Amino acid sequence: MRALFWAELFKLCKQRRTYYALGAILVMEIIILFSAYYQGRSFIDLLLTNFKETFYFEGNLLNGNLLVYVILNTLWFHLPLLLMIIISGLLTAEYKDGTLQTVFLQPVHKLKFIACKYLAAILFTLVSVLFLMITAFGLSYLIFGQGDLIVYLDTFNFYEPHDAFHRLIWAFFSGSVTMVFYTVVSLTMAICFKDATITWIVAAFFLIVSSLLIRIDYGDSLFGKVLYAKLGESWQYFFHFEIPWQPIIINNGLLIVYSILVMALGMLIFTKNDIS
Q1: Phi/psi at 149 (nearest 5 deg)?
Q2: How confident is the model at residue 177 (pLDDT cuts 50, 70, 90)?
Q3: Which H or E run contains 243?
Q4: What confidence category does residue 44 fall into, taking pLDDT thresholds of 50, 70 and 90?
Q5: In the chain, how many domains are there?
Q6: Burial of 54 by CB count in 10 Å (0-12 exposed, 13-18 middle, 19+ buried)?
Q7: CA distances to 66, 87, 97, 99, 128 from 25, in Å
Q8: The pLDDT value given to residue 247
Q9: Residues 6+ apart with CB under 8 A from 114
Q10: Nearest Cα residue to 79 out of 36, 26, 30
Q11: Bridge-partner residues for 155, per DSSP?
């Protein structure tokens, strides 16, 4: 199984679309920072217009911590879409090229084979989020420097640079659980549909539906508390004045359970179906 896992990692490292995806993440970050460099000050002034009549603000509010937070907010649709395309390609490309039949001419266990693909997908997802985190902090701090983080979640909250940095780090860790869920779903879709184009369309549709479900207010209903789309917003909790650790742990725990269930379903379908 170890050889199968390393083979999957090797294929990920060799395929060009892996680097295109990482490059796309970097380009989107640069566009966000470029926009902030030229228009960020006017946005801050507009946001704080009413408050400046009452309070005196000192220091640079348009800083690296704020830009990392903005990047977090803007990439949580684009990043899973890129990841789902790359991860689903781990399997759909082999269906298209007919290499699966060649693989199973050897004494390869189907369950171990697909399990290694899921493990490689999870590892690549975590590496991608780490890449996003390092480049977001590096570029934002390099261009805008550090400073207090201002966040509006029902009320305005201000965090000192040290506190803001740690909250942002925790947000990336929480967000990585959400990204793993989406990539696991994409690989399971690839098992079901086999064709790359169909899988990409269904994955994009899944993300669009997910984003719509997030915007619906479910009140205090149990459905809203266990819905996967709502669970994926747990990273935002780190920017409440008092971090609600219990719902964060519960929500991420549920997402991990959902990921395991989706993986189990995909493995079951793959092992039961004929390779064709």
Answers
A1: -100, 125
A2: very high
A3: none
A4: low
A5: 1
A6: exposed
A7: 18, 15, 28, 30, 9
A8: 92
A9: 191, 266, 267, 270, 271
A10: 26
A11: 153
Q: How far is CA 155 from the centre of its chain?
A: 26
Q: What's the token pair of residue 123?
A: 């590892």
CB 119 within 8 A of CB 2: no
Q: First and final CA of the chain: distance in angstroms?
A: 23
For residue 43, give both structure tokens.
Answer: 């946005």
- Contact indicator for 161, 146 with CB cutoff of 8 Å: yes
pLDDT for 64-112, tens place per residue? 888 898 888 877 778 898 898 888 888 888 888 777 777 777 777 888 8
Sorted by sequence, the CB contacts under 8 Å of residue 193 that are 6+ apart come out as: 92, 199, 202
How sure is the predictor about 43, in pLDDT bands with cuts at 50, 70 and 90? Answer: low
Which domain, by its residues, includes 107?
Answer: 2-272
**Which residues, other chains included, contact 218 with Cβ-Cβ below 8 Å and sequence gap of 6+?**
224, 225, 227, 230
Q: Which residues pair with 157 in a beta bridge?
A: 151
- Measuring CA to CA, how many Å separate 159 from each of 26, 122, 148, 168? 26, 32, 5, 11
| Amino acid identity for residue 141 in this structure | Y
Alpha helical stretches, state H, the chain: 2-14, 16-47, 49-52, 64-97, 99-103, 110-144, 161-193, 196-215, 222-226, 228-231, 245-272
Structural tokens at position 101: 């039949």
CA distance 170 to 141: 18
